[in-house]
Design brief:
This protein has about 675 residues and is an alpha+beta fold. Strand 16 and strand 17 form a beta hairpin.
Length: about 675
């Protein structure tokens, strides 16, 4: 008889909760149906009375009709709603207590930020090419294209090759897996030691499998020259009768800085496809290939296109001269990988065979050495360009062992002599095509304030960071409200645009507007209108235009009103305009010596429909002499302003005729004090 351990619900929960922890890299986790987990929690709740949930029911997570032992997972499943994740020891407990299945085992991988369970694994369309496909056909297998799924992104390319033998049993012993996304005509072999995650492969894409090709052997030219080409020659452009241009590159020169070993040479020349790029003849369409956006990678694409269209650097790479300078042992370099991947990109861009190219491998290499560029967030193009130049320089640095050098100071010597000596010292440690093409010297002069000693040094630089000149002027759009006169009713508001210096004051702006619209500046009132309400009444003359309009919100409108009185006293800030009228004589009994009781009264008039809480039109502004402020004067001024769109005379006749039946009003003016 076998003894079976049966635990009570609360005891099971205690055991499971004791195993809860965050996922750790390389752990195994399992998916469990969320519906089954809810029943299990009800059963293990100490205060509950539910029965045992029965076997684990994971069939609901599988693709319908998939009867394999480990079926494919349904698309679109959501954590906590469709499934929950448990660690492998919890899954084993569930199998011991309840049984059931099927088991969906998943590995914990890194997404570059944290460790996560890879729920949905990768799938690929794998196509055999060349002798690899011939081997499959000879063995009686009809199809050389297979769909494979359930591939972990944490697996290496060499591990994927082992998996592929389950699908293609007759594969050759030596194979390589290639990514045709970047170059379909000559797909790039994937590095065997890299994981699919590191290579940023996309689930569902095509992969090409072929027999492994031999590496190239380097044949060194005889006579090197300082410009990187044999006999000091340079690339030549010739034109045919039909107008087609042909680039012809001379043979690459061997590096004068050091002798390369055969191993280093093989490493440097390991190009995709197993064959060297033929730089003898370039298509007339060379250089006209675009770069695909991999997801917010326009910053990288723009930097690559700039470098690609730097003729001397591109000629150096396409001619193959760069392979003699690859420095895989530089401790602060990238082992030559950055330079090699950049050469791959140039090869495709200048082949003229494609209209677009996806630089995924180069991006992967950049992210590997500079994690700040990993992922698909937007980045700074200049920062990437600086990294590329620095990285390619170190990968191609001809100096294998950097000597110690002292700083050179000028003193009384001629600048040319000090500069030459400083540059020679710099070249003892840094000597590459990047130094030849992109680096220069700063002259730095420092004078001691105590002893007046002058120190002159010449420091190397590769890029200059300069501020972009800001526009000194800005264009402002405003709406002008002219005042009604005895000869004309209130006119329609008119929009104007004016260009003004950013450093100008509001007073200068007011005078410029007055000149533009032919109105005396002292009668122009400027305010900020937000959602049919006026703010900052009025704009003070002393404020800067740039500061004033920076403080305005996106919903602000710039309003200019022609008023009936001189408002200079209001806009120069010498008085408090909005102290309530009724308290001017009693404000602490006295007024400040710098202030005087203003003779000017400014009213902000909002326009509303009675019973509605919000304004229905842009407010307008009225001005009065203090002694003239009466209810009748305000009502008449309001009517004069609104006469353009309200016929008060006709309305009053209608009200008069209706007076026998009742009463009413066409215009009601309510004065609210600002306390």
């Amino acid at each position: 008889l076998a003894m079976v351990e049966i635990l009570l619900g609360p005891e099971e929960r205690a055991e499971v909760e004791g195993s809860l922890a965050a996922p750790r890299l390389n752990e195994k986790w399992y998916l469990v149906s969320a519906r089954w987990m809810r029943r299990w929690r009800e059963y293990t709740d100490p205060s509950g009375s539910a029965g045992r949930p029965g076997p684990v029911e994971n069939e609901v997570l599988a693709v319908e009709g998939d009867v394999r032992e480990t079926p494919a997972l349904r698309d679109g499943l959501l954590e906590r709603e469709d499934y929950e994740l448990v660690r492998d020891d919890v899954w084993m407990k569930f199998m011991k207590w309840y049984g059931g299945g099927p088991a969906f085992c998943r590995e914990v991988v890194s997404n570059g930020v944290e460790s996560v369970v890879e729920v949905y694994r990768m799938k690929f369309t794998v196509r055999l090419e060349g002798s690899a496909s011939e081997a499959e056909v000879d063995s009686g297998l009809a199809s050389t294209v297979r769909e494979i799924d359930d591939v972990s992104s944490a697996i290496t390319v060499s591990g994927l090759a082992i998996t592929l033998r389950d699908y293609f049993p007759a594969l050759p012993k030596e194979i390589e897996i290639c990514d045709p996304v970047e170059d379909k005509a000559n797909p790039v072999p994937l590095e065997e030691y890299r994981t699919l995650k590191q290579l940023q492969l996309v689930s569902g894409q095509e992969l090409v499998v072929r027999r492994k090709r031999q590496k190239l052997q380097l044949t060194k030219p005889e006579a090197p020259h300082s410009n990187g080409f044999a006999n000091g020659s340079a690339p030549v452009v010739t034109s045919a009768a039909n107008g087609a241009a042909t680039f012809r590159f001379p043979e690459p020169a061997a590096s004068t800085a050091s002798q390369r070993t055969t191993t280093e040479a093989n490493y440097a020349l390991e190009m995709p496809g197993g064959a060297a790029f033929n730089t003898k003849l370039l298509s007339p369409k060379a250089g006209l290939t675009g770069l695909s956006n991999l997801g917010n990678t326009c910053f990288m694409n723009s930097a690559l296109q700039c470098l690609s269209n730097t003729p001397d650097l591109t000629s150096f790479f396409l001619s193959g001269a760069y392979v003699n300078d690859v420095n895989p042992d530089n401790p602060i370099g990238m082992g030559g990988l950055l330079a090699q991947n950049y050469a791959r990109v140039l090869k495709v861009l200048w082949s003229g065979e494609s209209t677009s190219y996806s630089p995924r491998l180069l991006k992967t290499e950049i992210a590997h050495f500079a994690p700040q560029f990993s992922g698909y967030a937007q980045q700074d193009s200049q920062e990437l360009l600086a990294f590329l130049l620095d990285g390619i320089h170190e990968d191609l640095n001809r100096i294998r062992k950097k000597p110690f050098v002292e700083n050179i100071e000028g003193g009384a010597r001629p600048d040319s002599e000090v500069a030459d000596e400083s540059w020679a010292n710099h070249k003892k440690r840094h000597d590459s095509i990047i130094v030849d093409l992109f680096q220069g010297q700063y002259k730095s002069t420092v004078v001691c304030p105590t002893c007046n000693k002058v120190s002159v040094t010449f420091d190397p630089f590769m890029y200059l960071t300069l501020p972009l000149p800001s526009k000194r002027t800005q264009t402002l759009t405003f709406t002008l409200f002219r005042r009604p006169t005895e000869y004309a009713k209130s006119s329609r508001p008119v929009k104007y645009s004016i260009q003004i210096e950013k450093t100008a004051t509001v007073r200068t702006l007011r005078h410029a507007i007055g000149k533009l619209v032919h109105i005396e500046p002292s009668r122009l009132f400027i305010a900020d209108c937000v959602i049919l309400k006026l703010y900052d009444i009025p704009f003070l003359d002393s404020k800067k235009v740039e500061d004033t309009f920076r403080e305005m919100t996106y919903s602000s409108s710039f309003m200019v009103y022609e008023v009936d009185h001189d408002i200079e006293i209001a806009v120069n800030g010498s008085c408090n305009l909005f102290t309530p009228l009724r308290s001017y004589d009693t404000m602490n009994g006295t007024l400040s010596s710098k202030q005087e009781t203003p003779n000017l009264v400014i009213l902000d008039v909002s326009q509303k429909v009675e019973g509605e809480p919000t304004n229905v039109a842009v407010p307008f502004v009225l001005t009065f002499h203090r002694k003239e402020v009466t209810g009748l004067a305000i009502a008449q001024a309001v009517k004069a302003r609104a006469a353009r769109y309200v016929d008060f005379e006709a309305a009053e006749r209608q009200i008069s005729e209706a007076g026998k039946k009742g009463s009413g009003s066409v215009c009601k003016v309510t004065v609210k004090y600002k306390d």
